[in-house]
Amino acid sequence: MPVPSKSARKEARRGRPSRNRAKLSTTVAAENFTFLETMVNSGRTDSIAETVDLAIARLRREETRLRLERATAEYFGGLAQEAQTEEDTLAQQLHTSGGGVDFDLEP
After folding, report:
1. Which of 4, 55, 44, 48 has the alpha carbon at shortest distance from 27?
2. pTM for this one?
3. What's the rounded Cα separation, in Å, for the pair 49 and 53?
4. For position 78, what pLDDT does the model report?
5. Is the pLDDT at 11 greater than 80, yes or no?
6. CA distance 101 to 36
7. Phi, psi of 14, deg, nearest 5
8. For residue 82, which phi and psi values (nearest 5 degrees)?
9. Is residue 13 part of a domain?
10. What is the pLDDT of residues 19-50, one digit of tens each?
């Protein structure tokens, strides 16, 4: 997710919505509002709106990961036995060949 520019954050703080933002008026549980304020007061985000955007972006990434996991499991679960055996062989070969790589030293 792209990081909003300084001018977009300043604009949002002044109460003027930037071009790519939609106005939202809602209520939240008291503990959630306290969390939002804590994020802003600690300097982790510039505004409550930015904190909400961050939380939603994280939730969307998690949802995307779950969909990918389900689709992957469905794909491999539906393979014919011969194809599954071939996939298992390829996975084992990849695991073996990657054993000598030190990923901390790779650029």
Report:
1. 48
2. 0.61
3. 6
4. 94
5. no
6. 42
7. -80, -5
8. -65, -45
9. yes
10. 788 998 999 999 999 999 999 999 999 999 99
12 neighbors 45 (Cβ within 8 angstroms) = no
pLDDT tens-digit series, residues 44-64: 999 999 999 999 999 999 999
- Spatial separation of the C-alpha atoms in residues 65 and 73, rounded to whole Å: 12
User: Diameter of the chain by CA atoms?
Assistant: 62
Please list, in sequence order, all residues whose beta carbon lies within 8 angstroms of the beta carbon of residue 22, skipping any fewer than 6 positions away.
Answer: none
Domain-located, residue 105:
no
Backbone angles phi, psi at 99, to 5 degrees: -65, -30
Residue 59: both structure tokens together: 């939730």
pLDDT on residue 25: 92
Which residues have C-beta within 8 Å of that of residue 18, sequence separation ≥ 6?
A: 4, 8, 11, 12
Number of domains in the chain: 1
Q: Between vectors from CA 49 to CA 54 and to CA 40, what angle results, nearest 5°? A: 80
Domain that holds residue 31: 6-98
